[in-house]
Specification:
Order of helices and strands: HHHEHEEHE
Strand order of the largest sheet: 2-3-1-4
CATH topology of the largest domain: Alpha-Beta Plaits
Number of helices: 5
Helix content: 25-40%
Shape: elongated
Largest sheet: 4 strands, antiparallel
Length: about 150
């Protein structure tokens, strides 16, 4: 199968539809983007093979999952070394409270999205997980009050 190098208007439409609803049937997707079902299936397969589509997942309702408290955190490290970053990233990869961990530019090294049951659970994470890591020098919390737009899948 030939790998795609450019995203044309049809592939862009396919990607937008799949990002809205990854469970859309091929027949419905083909209709929405103006292709035959077989041509649509070939396009999706090519987008997957090219690594443009990297997977499909379920979008969960945090409240239904018992995670009513969410915050973004910025985390600064006390050492700017590869080993400090690796150790921090390993710790975040096994922390179930951390839903996203991004290495960023600016005054701090990381931006986290943390989801927990409530403020008490957040305090435990902040103190017992982040506060216990020797690499961490600063933590700033930004409690999420609402998300009028959230297109994460």
């Amino acid at each position: 199968m030939q790998l795609m190098t450019e995203i044309d208007a049809i592939s862009d439409a396919i990607l937008r539809e799949l990002s809205r609803n990854g469970r859309v049937s091929n027949l419905e997707l083909a209709t929405k983007v103006g292709l035959s079902p077989s041509a649509c299936l070939r396009r999706v397969a090519a987008l997957e093979a090219a690594g443009v589509i990297t997977g499909y997942r379920a979008v969960l309702d945090p409240a239904a999952m018992g995670t009513g408290f969410a915050a973004f955190l910025t985390v600064g490290l006390n050492q700017h070394t590869k080993s400090a970053q690796r150790a921090f990233e390993r710790a975040m990869s096994i922390a179930p409270e951390v839903r996203e961990c991004h290495n960023i530019t600016g005054e701090v090294e990381y931006l986290l999205r943390v989801e927990v049951a409530d403020l008490k659970a957040y305090k435990a994470f902040h103190t017992d997980v982040l506060g216990d890591l020797p690499q961490v020098s600063t933590i700033k919390s930004y409690v999420i009050m609402g998300s009028p737009k959230d297109e994460r899948a």
